[in-house]
């Protein structure tokens, strides 16, 4: 199977086969990361530009390393200090990037659809590194990769996503990806952060964490933004932690071999206790490693590569 | 100068007419409507198979001048109206400066008169600069020709100010035209709050943001015994509130837009910023309720909320794009194709809501083919099939989500004060 799409904008539009292609390609990529010399020449002469309109350390670094390990030239544009301040429109930025001839654009933006808008206006391939509350496909793919690596298969697993579902692009992309690969999904959070309409996505919704994680195989804990309290969605961080924090006691309600994920950065003591974050069930640091491997796979596939070349 | 429109089907709800008749125009007025009229001096138009209606009135239009001439001007907006078969428009006051005083209101109506395309009636602001703090000089606005009062786009949040506006406007028999929206409930949303906003991760505007404001204004209208007109009704809940208010005898009227009747929030999945509008495109269920409301008379008028924006305003991220959809040049075909040809409403039912009803709400002597009245007429070819092509709009703007739609039933002639200003979709410049 060969990757056919120009861009990677979200998981909503992907088929299970396309998702599996990325996950399968990430396996040999992860092997490259374990080598003493972590460099293969498959993207030599290609340029990857990262454009982050929102601050990010780990996702951006992850993409940059992924590009470098594949021998691409990587350029980071710090959008907050660049043309945005001069008031340039996204369309003009797109035309500029196009003129410079970048092969792949990795873009994060606070507005839903900004990478889609960019993709329509440039010939470069566009990777969505997070758009508003809409999608964060590479995060979901690394979550899927981690689950598959630990559990062997995703089909039939019970997966709980815990926290601020409403504002989470990670939750949305995970819901699309997990459901396409046959997992059963429970989402859990306070009613102000989990509107009823999520049910229409084919997930079960819960407001009590103890019910939601009963017997699950995987718990994906989301970061809680502090401004939710200021916006009137939550009474206090303290109350949230008391009701929703993934603690050791609560984790015991899940399957004995349950896997705990978190996209980071963590608020220890709020959405997750340190004991759980540093415990045996957590694969949070491995997620970061897997993130590089998955992003290598994506860059590689977008430039027309196929899995056999790397494996050999 | 005489014109004789022969053999058209005359649909004139103001006079209970729906029959194949002739219409004789002398100078600026209707001279006769009847069977087998002949006049050897008159210029003859054979309109067999065509529909002849009083000139369409769009009671909710943004002409953008003064202040936003990069989006639209009085000239381009009134030419777009004529091209679209609309002979009169009511201009909303959210210009810069705001139409909250005689000078701006007179500038707009007199400039339109000078240009001589569609007739323009000014809607004065409710509050100074539409800030919702102090009443505008409503008496002066009335003297200058204001036909209604609205802070459209900047809903009046202060309930007491709205009450005072109603009590004061009552003295001048001006309707309060309410853009009903509770901004605290809108909470910086961009689209209808529902399944599609969840999928897109776009902040939603709940239906209750409109309904809470409709309910407040209805109660205030009941208390003050004033005339209230609800703009661009978009939700099933609002229709229900208005229906009940009418049953209670409250003087409330309402309008609905073509886009709310023909599109739903599903269209936003394209992330096309031309689908971004306030109130937002709602669900199919709301659309059904709007249609019901139109049928049973709860909704009195159809108006486009023509809201032009420059390409650079709209060619941005969805969240940053301004709200607004162009309406004037797609008004007639959308209504004929989607309301009449689909069998939802009859010709007289639709024509009533774009002629005599809006004229009545605004107190205009228009919307009728009565003898002696201004000869403002729209002629429609109900069988003409054409694709909407935004590149051919007379409007300065291009922000239409209807581009490419194939529609049946287009205006083929627009007459204002006895002058033919549009034929076959092309404007006729009569030495101006």
Keywords, separated by commas or semicolons:
heterodimer, A: 312 residues, alpha/beta, four-stranded parallel sheet, 9 strands, B: 432 residues, nine-stranded mixed sheet, 14 helices, 19 strands
Topology (elements, then pairings):
The complex is a heterodimer of chains A (312) and B (432).
Chain A: H1 16-34, E1 47-52, H2 58-69, E2 73-78, H3 83-86, H4 90-100, E3 104-109, H5 114-121, E4 125-131, H6 137-151, E5 158-162, H7 169-180, E6 184-188, E7 204-206, H8 209-212, E8 218-221, H9 227-230, H10 237-244, H11 248-251, E9 259-261, H12 274-277, H13 284-302, H14 307-311
Parallel strand pairs in A: 1-2, 1-3, 3-4, 5-6, 5-8, 6-7, 8-9
Helix pairs in contact in A: 1-6, 1-13, 2-13, 4-5, 6-7, 6-13
Chain B: E1 2-12, E2 17-26, E3 29-34, E4 43-46, E5 51-54, E6 56-61, H1 74-83, E7 86-91, H2 102-115, E8 119-124, H3 138-143, E9 148-149, H4 159-171, E10 176-178, H5 183-186, E11 191-192, H6 195-200, E12 204-205, H7 207-224, E13 228-230, H8 236-247, E14 252-256, H9 258-262, H10 284-295, E15 301-302, H11 311-314, H12 331-340, H13 347-354, H14 356-362, E16 377-387, E17 406-416, E18 419-423, E19 426-427
Parallel strand pairs in B: 1-4, 1-5, 6-7, 7-8, 8-9, 10-13, 11-12, 13-14, 14-15
Antiparallel strand pairs in B: 1-2, 2-3, 5-16, 16-17, 17-18, 18-19
Helix pairs in contact in B: 4-7, 7-8, 8-10, 13-14
Description of the molecule:
The complex is a heterodimer of chains A (312) and B (432). The longest helix of chain A has 19 residues, at 16-34. Chain A is an alpha/beta fold. In chain A, the strands form 2 sheets. A 5-stranded parallel beta sheet of chain A has the order 7-6-5-8-9. Chain A has a 4-stranded parallel beta sheet with strand order 2-1-3-4, with helices on both faces. In chain A, helix 7 (169-180) links the parallel strand 5 and strand 6 (184-188). Chain A has helices at residues 16-34, 58-69, 83-86, 90-100, 114-121, 137-151, 169-180, 209-212, 227-230, 237-244, 248-251, 274-277, 284-302, 307-311, and strands spanning 47-52, 73-78, 104-109, 125-131, 158-162, 184-188, 204-206, 218-221, 259-261. By secondary structure, chain B is an alpha/beta fold. Helix content of chain B is 30%, strand content 23%. Chain B contains 14 helices and 19 strands. The model of chain B has no long low-confidence stretch (mean pLDDT 97). The chains are: A alpha/beta (312), B alpha/beta (432). The A-B interface holds A 12, 89-91, 109-114, 116-117, 131-135, 166-167, 169, 172, 195, 197-198, 200-201 and B 193-195, 197-203, 271, 312, 315-320.
């Amino acid at each position: 199977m060969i990757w056919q799409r120009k861009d990677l904008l979200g998981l909503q539009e992907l088929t299970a086969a396309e998702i599996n292609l990325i996950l399968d390609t990430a396996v040999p990529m992860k092997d490259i990361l374990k080598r003493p010399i972590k460099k293969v020449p498959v993207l030599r002469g290609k340029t990857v530009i990262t454009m982050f309109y929102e601050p990010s350390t780990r996702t951006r670094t992850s993409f940059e390393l992924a590009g470098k390990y594949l021998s691409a030239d990587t350029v980071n544009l710090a959008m907050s200090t660049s043309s945005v301040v001069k008031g340039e429109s996204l369309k003009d930025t797109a035309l500029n990037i196009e003129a410079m001839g970048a092969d792949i654009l990795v873009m994060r933006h606070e507005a839903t659809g900004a990478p889609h808008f960019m993709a329509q206006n440039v010939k470069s391939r566009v990777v969505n590194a997070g758009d508003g509350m809409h999608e964060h496909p590479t995060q979901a793919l690394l979550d899927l990769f981690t689950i598959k690596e630990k559990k062997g298969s995703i089909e039939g697993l019970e997966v709980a996503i815990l926290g601020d579902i409403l504002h989470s692009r990670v939750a949305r992309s995970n819901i699309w990806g997990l459901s396409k690969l046959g997992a059963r999904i429970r989402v859990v959070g306070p009613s102000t952060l989990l509107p009823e309409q999520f049910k229409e996505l084919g997930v079960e919704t819960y407001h009590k964490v103890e019910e939601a994680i009963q017997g699950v195989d995987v718990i994906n804990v989301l970061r809680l933004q502090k401004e939710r309290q200021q916006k009137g969605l939550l009474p206090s961080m303290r109350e949230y932690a008391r009701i929703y924090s993934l603690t050791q006691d609560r984790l015991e309600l899940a399957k004995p071999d349950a896997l705990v994920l978190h996209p980071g950065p963590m608020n220890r003591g709020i959405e997750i206790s340190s004991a759980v974050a540093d415990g045996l069930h957590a694969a949070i640091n491995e997620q970061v490693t897997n993130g590089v491997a998955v992003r290598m796979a994506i860059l590689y596939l977008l430039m027309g590569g196929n899995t056999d070349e790397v494996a050999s | 100068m005489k014109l004789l429109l022969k053999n058209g089907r005359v649909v004139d709800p103001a006079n209970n007419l729906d029959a194949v008749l002739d219409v004789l125009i002398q100078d600026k007025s209707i001279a006769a409507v009847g069977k087998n009229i002949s006049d050897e001096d008159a210029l003859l138009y054979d309109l067999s198979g065509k529909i002849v209606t009083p000139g369409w009135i769009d009671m909710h239009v943004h002409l953008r001048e003064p202040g936003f001439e990069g989006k639209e001007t009085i000239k381009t907006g009134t030419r777009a109206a004529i091209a679209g078969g609309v002979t009169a428009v009511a201009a909303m006051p959210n210009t810069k400066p705001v139409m909250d005083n005689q000078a701006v209101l007179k500038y707009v109506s007199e400039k339109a008169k000078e240009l001589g395309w569609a007739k323009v009636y000014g809607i004065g602001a409710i509050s100074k600069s539409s800030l919702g703090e102090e009443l505008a000089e409503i008496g002066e606005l009335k003297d200058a020709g204001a036909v209604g009062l609205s802070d459209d786009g900047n809903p009046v949040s202060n309930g007491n100010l709205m009450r005072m506006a109603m009590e004061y406007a009552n003295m001048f028999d001006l309707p309060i035209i309410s853009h009903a929206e509770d901004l605290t409930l809108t909470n910086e949303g961009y689209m209808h709050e529902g399944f599609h906003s969840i999928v897109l991760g776009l902040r939603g505007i709940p239906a209750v943001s409109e309904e809470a404001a409709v309910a407040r204004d209805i109660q205030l209208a009941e208390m003050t015994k004033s005339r209230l007109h609800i703009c661009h009704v978009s939700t099933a809940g609002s229709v229900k509130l208005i229906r009940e208010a009418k049953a209670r005898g409250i003087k409330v009227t309402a309008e609905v837009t073509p886009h709310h009747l023909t599109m739903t929030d599903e269209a936003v999945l394209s992330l096309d910023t031309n689908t971004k509008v306030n109130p937002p495109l709602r669900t199919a269920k709301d659309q059904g309720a709007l249609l019901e409301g139109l049928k049973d008379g709860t909704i009195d008028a159809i108006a486009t909320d023509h809201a032009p924006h420059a390409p650079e305003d709209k060619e941005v991220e969805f969240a940053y794009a301004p709200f607004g959809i162009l309406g004037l040049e797609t008004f007639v075909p959308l209504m004929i194709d989607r309301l009449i040809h689909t069998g939802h409403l009859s010709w007289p039912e639709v024509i009533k809501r774009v002629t005599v009803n809006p004229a009545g709400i605004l107190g205009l002597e228009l919307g009728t083919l009565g003898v002696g009245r201004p000869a403002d007429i729209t002629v429609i070819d109900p069988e003409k099939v054409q694709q909407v092509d935004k590149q051919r709009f007379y409007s300065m703007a291009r922000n239409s989500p209807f581009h490419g739609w194939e529609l049946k039933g287009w205006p083929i002639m627009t007459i204002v004060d006895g002058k033919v200003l549009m034929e076959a979709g092309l404007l006729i410049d009569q030495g101006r």
